[in-house]
Amino acid sequence: MSLLVVNETRQARLADRCQLARNFWSRGLGLMGRASLEPGGGLLIYPEWSIHTFFMRFPIDVVFVDRQDTVVGIRHALPPYRPYAGAWGARYVLELPAGVLAATATQVGDHLAVTPSPHPPRRQ
Q1: pLDDT one-digit tens code per residue, 81-98
Q2: Side-chain-side CA neighbours of residue 6 (13 Å)
Q3: Which of 21, 26, 28, 95 has the highest local Cβ count within 10 Å?
Q4: Cα–Cα–Cα angle for 114, 124, 115, nearest 5°?
Q5: In sequence order, what are the beta bridge partners of 50?
Q6: Are strands 112-115 and 2-7 parallel, antiparallel or unpaired?
Q7: Does the pTM exceed 0.70?
Q8: Strand 60-65 to strand 2-7: parallel, antiparallel, or no bridges (unpaired)?
């Protein structure tokens, strides 16, 4: 499944071919082993509030997002082999090609829209 991720605050597309990592294995593997992340690509890790970049080969932009789809933390061009990056209150993490956050002026407090939504339906 491919997701569309838009920064509604800035009216900017962050990713139009974003993959969803939702199970134990896909969340643990993340982007490890890949040579790059293509423009328009991304990885949304749900649920998650922190990441590492061990065994990665390239820097990435990282967005930490809460339950209301509000950006609660960002990291520009996070290099490989960092032991930890996270943000308090995050519910999911969006990994993007380095430079996307600067190009879209994405900031803490911005609201994102993810289509289709990664959030599970609420029980009545």
Answers
A1: 888 899 999 999 999 999
A2: 10
A3: 95
A4: 10
A5: 86
A6: antiparallel
A7: yes
A8: unpaired
Q: What is the DSSP string of 83-98?
A: S-EE-TT-SEEEEEET
Number of domains present in the structure of the chain: 1
Percentage of the chain exceeding pLDDT 90? 71
Q: Is there a contact between 20 and 119 (Cβ–Cβ < 8 Å)?
A: no
User: Which CATH number is 51's domain given?
Assistant: 2.60.120.1140
Q: What are phi and psi of 57, to 5 degrees?
A: -110, -5
Task: At 1, list the tokens.
Answer: 């499944």
Domain of 54, in residue numbers: 2-115
Task: Find out whether 46 and 92 touch, Cβ atoms under 8 Å.
Answer: yes
pLDDT at 22: 85
Tokens of 40: 């328009």
Distance CA 31, CA 11 (A): 27
Asked if the structure places residue 86 within a domain, the reply is yes
pLDDT digits (tens, 9 = 90+) for 28-65: 767 777 878 999 999 999 999 999 898 889 999 999 99
Report the candidate in 123, 7, 8 with the shortest Cα–Cα distance to residue 63. Answer: 7
